[in-house]
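Good morning,

Attaching, inline, the backbone tokens for the sequence recovery test we're adding to the shared suite. The designed sequence is right after.
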């Protein structure tokens, strides 16, 4: 089975001609780091033949699953709670297509991985236009569910890591102009930048680059950076610019490992009372 995926995610998979993409699941299954991460998903469906294989496949990858059987409750939950993935039974769940379309306008879930499950009424192209990253066609077997879950978890991890800021205390050397440098302490780091604290006033010349060691690395990372913001207390935000590929991969890999250590057991409990009202059922 080839699981179709939207073109904005194609860089994570084998390259196919421009347009729709297919995931070669055998070559792109999730790594141990991905599987170890604590991720959460919301499944909107009343179809037990869909819920059973998808829940089993997702929980196999340590992805927590909440099942919502009411469209209004689903919209309420998505407005207030974040999920790494939202799976919508578009054709056999009342209001499913509207939920898929509207979630992209919700602050909490606008970047969540969206999986559209179709049953002949909605076309694949329409599902992608509504914001789906993956499209699965019914009937969904256990094997098909497992393969798509394996592919989707890589996307879920990528999105989680993009916005994750790891709190950490390490030394950073900031270079200003041609030859000025200041030592700083970093308080957190993400894929795109870091928060730091300077003990001295910042030079008038602009920030040009930064240099620092990540734990367990023998050589420092050094690349261009901009000063995104700074306050009078010496705290500042640095934005990474034109990251060399090796530096980008080193930061991404390190952040993935840090996220993996934060993994928690999959919980069957709803996140709050609103989730309980969503009629989460055991099928």
């Amino acid at each position: 089975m080839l699981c179709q995926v939207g073109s904005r995610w194609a860089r994570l998979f084998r390259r196919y001609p421009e347009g729709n993409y297919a995931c070669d699941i055998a070559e792109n299954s999730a790594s141990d780091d991905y599987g170890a991460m604590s991720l959460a998903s919301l499944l909107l469906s009343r179809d037990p033949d869909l819920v059973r294989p998808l829940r089993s496949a997702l929980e196999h990858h340590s992805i927590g699953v909440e099942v919502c059987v009411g469209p209004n409750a689903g919209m309420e939950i998505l407005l207030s709670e974040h999920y790494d993935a939202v799976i919508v039974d578009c054709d056999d769940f009342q209001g499913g297509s509207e939920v898929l379309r509207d979630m992209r306008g919700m602050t909490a879930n606008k970047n969540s991985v969206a999986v559209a499950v179709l049953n002949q009424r909605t076309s694949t192209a329409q599902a992608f236009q509504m914001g789906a990253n993956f499209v699965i066609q019914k009937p969904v077997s256990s094997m098909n569910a497992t393969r798509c879950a394996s592919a989707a978890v890589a996307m879920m991890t990528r999105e989680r890591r993009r916005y994750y800021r790891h709190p950490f205390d390490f030394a950073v050397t900031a270079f200003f102009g041609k030859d000025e440098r200041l030592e700083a302490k970093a308080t957190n780091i993400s894929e795109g930048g870091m928060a730091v604290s300077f003990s001295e006033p910042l030079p008038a010349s602009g920030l040009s680059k930064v240099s620092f060691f990540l734990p367990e690395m023998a050589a420092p990372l050094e690349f261009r950076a901009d000063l995104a913001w700074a306050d009078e207390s010496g705290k500042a935000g640095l934005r990474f610019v034109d990251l060399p590929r090796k530096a980008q991969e080193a930061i991404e890999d390190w952040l993935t490992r840090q996220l993996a250590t934060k993994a928690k057991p999959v919980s069957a409990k709803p996140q709050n009372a609103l989730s309980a009202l969503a009629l989460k059922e055991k099928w």
